[in-house]
Each structure stands twice: as C-alpha cells, then as structure tokens.
Amino acid sequence: MIRGITIQLVNRVETGKDWANRPVYRETAEAIDNVLVGEPSTEDITDALNLYGKQVSYILAIPKGDTHNWTDTKVILPEPFAGTYQTIGFPTAGIEENIPGPWNKKVKVERYVEGKD
Predict the structure, then answer these.
(1) Who has the most CB within 10 Å: 7, 24, 53, 101?
(2) 3-class DSSP assignment, residue 112
(3) Per-residue pLDDT, 33
(4) What sign results for the dihedral spanned by CA atoms 56, 58, 62, 68?
(5) 85 and 74 in contact (C-beta within 8 Å)?
(6) Nearest-CA neighbor of 5 among 105, 76, 98?
(7) Phi, psi of 70 (to 5 degrees)
(8) Run of H or E residues at 44
(9) Cα separation of 75 and 16, whole Å?
(10) Total-model pTM
(11) pLDDT exceeds 70 at position 87
(12) Pairwise CA distance, residues 32 & 87, whole Å
C-alpha cells in the first residue's frame, strides 16, 4: 500500500499591527501526515510559469478530509526533498467519494526564497 510522508504546514496568524499599521504575523508549523510528493508534469510547469511566473518544484497530494488553508502558504518538506516551499495558486480538489485512494487534493509548490514576493 502506498503511504505518504509527514510534512509541516506553516500557518500564519495575525497578532496585531506594527507602527505603520501593517499586520504582524506569528508563524506556527503543523504536522500533516500521509502527503504524497510527486514530480510536476510539463503542463503543470508551463501553466504555473505562464499564469503566476513561478517554477513548480513538486506536486503535493493531500489526504481526504483535510480542511487546512493551502493557498499562499509555506510548507516544509523532510529529506530527500528537504527545504521550505511556497504553494502556488489554488489547490485542485475532487469529490472525495468519487476518487479512489486516500488523497483528493493537489497543491503545487515552488522552492521558497526568503524575501521573495
């Protein structure tokens, strides 16, 4: 049976405002179990580059029943993918009952570089 890995999803919670009235966030990592990490197709790479100007590194398959926010968030992957990644675009989800296996959502990620917007 196929089994995914445990990754860390970085949640951002607004904790207040700074001196210029900009939001200040606190980041906490939450473990998400049974996530598959796959290679993006040529179409995935081309679409993300054309739509968002970003290079897809991996595609994550998210387990059914997951309710986390996967839009514009950071994820931390363990070895052999080791690194911090940023999600690209919106997750693609199917109807849980109509998809075999334990995964129903796909999320594209790119390598995260601090200070890059």
Answers:
(1) 7
(2) coil
(3) 96
(4) negative
(5) yes
(6) 76
(7) -105, 10
(8) helix 42-52
(9) 23
(10) 0.86
(11) yes
(12) 15
